[in-house]
Amino acid sequence: MNYLNIQNENILPVAKELNQLLADYHLYYQKLRNFHWNITGRNFFVLHEKFEEMYTDARIKIDEIAERILTLQYHPMSRYSSYLKASSISEDSPLQTDKEMIESIIKDHKLLLKQMSIVIKEAEKAEDDGTIDLIGSYISSLEKTSWMLNAFTKKTSEKLKEELIES
Asked: What is the pLDDT of residue 1?
């Protein structure tokens, strides 16, 4: 039964790209847990809590992505071996500094945002407003988190672009 107002042949590329995003999110989630468990140093309390907040958010998104694939009447990828093969995100060593961990996460955000953009393009072709809405909200949230993490790595003396500031 087709309960969607979308042509079935247009949905397959959307489901494939969502499965790619699902694989990426699984590796991202595990990396955040790795960093949460292994963070040390003077930023321990701040980053330990932040990484937990981020992996909790990622876990929710993993479920929502899988459920969207099911809504589109396809099976979500569900094996770790498949995630490892498909993901553009790679595993990381737990033996990193806090700054290296954050830089790795920001790098992963770029990959996730790139994949989200691909999902949006395929969803637009299929006129799949549900997927567009879901992923659009993920994009703005991830961009904000990236900005905050990037700001955390800066020295207080570093400034943003000043062209728009009135003197």
From this structure: 42
